[in-house]
Write a structure and sequence with these properties.
192 residues, alpha+beta, 8-stranded antiparallel beta sheet, 2 helices, 11 strands, 26% helix, rod-shaped
């Protein structure tokens, strides 16, 4: 699994590097220019179909070409075939124990369905449901607005001005005020 910066991530599927690298670990590999004895390297095995992560134990020169001898920490003997430089993918720089199990499981059909597909369907369903709820809210808001536009609201203020609010703007219309009747207090009576 490549990541930016030409780094690669692999799942350890054997215990050949235990106890240093446990079975089911995730390892992060970066390409290097030079490799030293005791480096843990990942390389393409003979045939190039599988990758192997083992410790580099010796560098030999055969006919002017460097040959890398590797060995798994848990193995008794060195690997039977030496590795050419062009087959080396890189040097391991980070190991995360047990995190390879879910990643490796997700790469199987059943794992993909359970860990990727089912949660994706649930998330998509929930998002569609949320969109539907929001759409209903907007439709109801528009219907409410349309209804209020059909029925203007009339308000009369204290100074007898009629205001009509029809949601397109506020229109004011002055009406003639009823005639004012002056009221005088009753005359004071003298009590004798």
């Amino acid at each position: 699994m490549p990541i930016p910066g030409n780094y690669k991530v692999f799942v350890v599927q054997s215990g050949s590097m235990e106890p240093k690298i446990k079975l089911g670990s995730l390892i992060f590999v970066k390409p290097g220019v030079d490799y030293q004895a005791n480096d843990i390297i990942t390389f393409k095995a003979q045939g190039g179909k599988t990758t192997v992560t083992h410790r580099l134990i010796e560098i030999k020169q055969e006919s002017g070409v460097a040959q890398f001898v590797t060995k798994g920490d848990a193995n008794e003997e060195a690997d039977p075939d030496s590795v050419k430089r062009e087959n080396i993918i890189g040097k391991t720089f980070l190991t995360l124990p047990w995190l390879g199990y879910p990643v490796g499981y997700a790469q199987t059909k059943v794992g993909f369905i359970l860990l990727i597909l089912v949660p994706s369907i649930i998330i998509i369903y929930e998002e569609i449901r949320k969109i539907g709820t929001e759409a209903k809210k907007k439709i109801n808001k528009i219907r409410k607005k349309d209804k209020s536009e059909e029925e203007p609201v009339y308000k009369r203020s204290s100074d007898n001005i009629l205001t009509v609010d029809i949601r397109e703007g506020i229109h004011k219309k002055e009406t003639s005020a009823p005639p004012k009747v002056e009221r005088h207090p009753p005359p004071k009576r003298k009590i004798v």
